Amino acid sequence: MTDSARASAQSATKPPGLRERMRATVRKEVVEVALRLFIEQGFDGTTVDQIAGEVGLSRASLFRYFGTKEDMVLQGLEETGGQIAEALAARPDTEGPWEALRRAFDVLTQANEQAPEQTLSYLRMLQETPSLRARHFEKQLSWQAMLEPEIARRLGVSADQPEEVGPNALSGAALACLDAAATGWVACGGTVPLAVLLDRAMGTLTE
Fold first, then answer.
1. CB neighbours of residue 88 within 10 Å
2. Which residues contact 185 (CB under 8 A, 6 or more apart)?
3. C-alpha count within 13 angstroms, C-beta hemisphere, residue 115
4. Which of 21, 31, 71, 74 is nearest to 55 (CA)?
5. What is the Cα–Cα distance from 101 to 84, expressed in whole angstroms?
6. Most confident of 67-81, 127-141, 147-161
7. pLDDT band, residue 5 (cuts 50/70/90)
């Protein structure tokens, strides 16, 4: 290994410094406070100044951590998308792409089972707030891009060939089923488990 490669490898494995850890701590606190206020008062009924005041930051300082109020709600979705993609890649090769996608979504359904009321409130807020729905859709497009390479591998096609539409179709359809299940879950107040509704939604396309 060359010196430059060794330095790059060491940099990649270097733990975050104090400044990065403090920044992550502040971001986590802002998200917790913001979500509580959003759920209590509604997204549009909560101001940035209220959130900043509760965490002891100025409005300008708060916007150095989050570009928009919507980001405070959705900042964790990119990480969630990465977790789903990792779960998909870890599924056995004996599973077909559709079954592997369903099982990868267990990352979400199992997390929801741990705090169902909190998740219901969160999803209800997303569905009832137009600006959040639009940004959530953008985030899910990034999820789709994360899933497509593994689906392409399982289909035996190249993800770099635009004429190979299978990976896009399957990942997009799976995410549409996830949205349908989440909408139904909120509508029934969580009386039917999200995992059951997701099974029904994805099963509809294989009947």
1. 25
2. 120, 123, 192, 193, 194, 197
3. 6
4. 31
5. 9
6. 147-161
7. very low
